[in-house]
Amino acid sequence: MRANATGRVLHDPKGGSFRFDAGAVCLDFAHTGGEGQYAVFETLHEPADLSEWLAQPPLAAVMTVPVTTRELAEAKTLRQAIWDAAHARAAHGPLPAEAVATINRAAAEAPLIPELAADGTTAGWAPPVRATQALSTLAREMIELLSGPLSERIRECASDNCPLVFVDTSRPGARRWCAMERCGNRHKLRAHRARQSTDS
């Protein structure tokens, strides 16, 4: 994985899209869809969708073994566990036992194995590259995040109606919004209108 290359373009079912960087690949993965009210944001409809997502940088895990429907189901279970754990940590609450168990189970599988290319300057993943390995790598990243120094910087967007979670990797630790161009600007606009109405 390449450092500082996280982030994906998220699409709103009502139209529009924006770039959201969750600050960690595992958290980017948590925003590929969801259950219940978040089902409208689902992007992993079939195994090929998961394969395509994993192949994108920074993970850049191009599957050499086709993703199965079972692996897709396992991916969605892990995704939900990462989402639940991140939200619990952002709220300074205890992590759900089921989420912890799911993350640990995925991490127990063999991870992706880095392999130096013949030129000695670039690296890829040693084949065979399977979805379970990619999921293990994501789960292990989440474990490092939850147990490491950035754990206290896992936050939910400060907007009232935005559930996106991210790890604030900025040096001052002052990030509040999922994206400045989305919730940050909306907040600025609302604050500006509020000032105008009180000034008049």
Automatic annotation (TrEMBL):
A Pfam family that the UniProt record links to this protein: zf-CGNR
Domain Zinc finger CGNR as annotated: residue spans: 153-196
InterPro entries: ABATE (IPR010852), ABATE_dom_sf (IPR023286), Znf_CGNR (IPR021005)
PANTHER family: BLL6575 PROTEIN
Protein name: CGNR zinc finger domain-containing protein
Source species of the chain: Nonomuraea helvata
